[in-house]
């Protein structure tokens, strides 16, 4: 099952990437078309969904599947042997759905069976476009219905463009929540987020403690993060206490210690295979990439796009992790 989930994650990653790129001149193709060794079939004949972007199952469950629709609904498929669908949560009136915005990521707490908590990443439309991470709770009386009034906002970050939102979320095997965020959008890193760790929560992957375990830290204050804080920073996060980045001095009190990895343009989808985290990062005009995400990793955007030079010049001595 682990391998199956991993390849489903990779298929989801690849489906979210843009494929309307110019062909790469060095590509090699076989002389004859290879034999097709797989077929596709409808998993749930008769059930349709509006712009589905993610499939999620609560920990330990085998008979329900949750479908995240970009437009602001989460549908639950019950009884997979004789599947039917019903609306689990509808936040469409509060969701910005233009461009690449929408309801983009869903993760169930590892203790969902007892606490009923799940987390949602979506682009909110009020008071303006914002990238929002929230916690919700399932209804006390109906396991197939969320309590819309239970929303608790962990962060809600103003976003100047409707694209490059990232938005995938997963609990890792360490019990921490990993969150992907793009570079705020536009082109060529126009908002200058790709190589900053002391500004906002853009262009990287976050790792946060939603349980606020003993020994972990409060996040550094930021206008996008409501207080009292609803999450903590794992004490072993890579940018805790740092005072330099890319050869530039940074104030540790301003560093976004949520970052686990940086230098990503639009990490649209992620997948854990055991303890290894893979991410699909959407390229600009040249290359898409799949990365193995490691603690403190810098993946090069906007100094690099895939294996090529990016739109901005890297400082002397800069190094980054290439895609796989």
Secondary-structure blueprint:
Layout: H1 2-15, E1 52-56, E2 64-69, E3 73-78, E4 84-90, E5 103-108, H2 112-115, E6 117-124, E7 130-138, E8 146-158, E9 169-171, E10 177-181, E11 204-208, E12 244-245, E13 248-249, E14 259-262, E15 267-273, E16 276-281, E17 289-293, E18 297-298, E19 304-305, E20 308-309
Parallel strand pairs: 14-18
Antiparallel strand pairs: 1-2, 2-3, 3-4, 5-6, 6-7, 7-8, 9-10, 10-11, 11-14, 12-13, 15-16, 16-17, 19-20
Order of helices and strands: HEEEEEHEEEEEEEEEEEEEEE
What's the CATH C level?
Mainly Beta
Looking at CATH, the homologous superfamily is TolB, C-terminal domain
CATH architecture label: 6 Propeller
CATH topology: Neuraminidase
Strand content of the residues, in percent? 25-35%
Q: Outline, from the CA principal axes? A: globular
- Helix segment count? 2
Number of β-strand runs: 20
Number of domains: 1
Strand order of the largest sheet: 9-10-11-14-18
Distance between the termini: 23 Å
Stretches with pLDDT under 50, minimum 5 residues:
1-22
Radius of gyration: 20 Å
Mean pLDDT: 93
Give the structural class. Answer: mainly beta
The proportion of residues forming helix, as a percent range, comes to: under 10%
Report the biggest beta sheet as strand number plus sense, adding barrel if it closes. Answer: 5 strands, mixed
Please, could you describe this protein's structure?
With 324 residues, the protein is mainly beta. It has one domain (2-14, 51-309): TolB, C-terminal domain (Neuraminidase). It has 2 helices and 20 strands. The chain has helices at residues 2-15, 112-115, and strands spanning 52-56, 64-69, 73-78, 84-90, 103-108, 117-124, 130-138, 146-158, 169-171, 177-181, 204-208, 244-245, 248-249, 259-262, 267-273, 276-281, 289-293, 297-298, 304-305, 308-309. The strands form 6 sheets. The protein has a 5-stranded mixed β-sheet with strand order 9-10-11-14-18, with no helix packed on it. Strand 9 and strand 10 (177-181) form a beta hairpin. The radius of gyration is 20 Å and the shape is globular. The two termini are 23 Å apart. The relative contact order is 0.13.
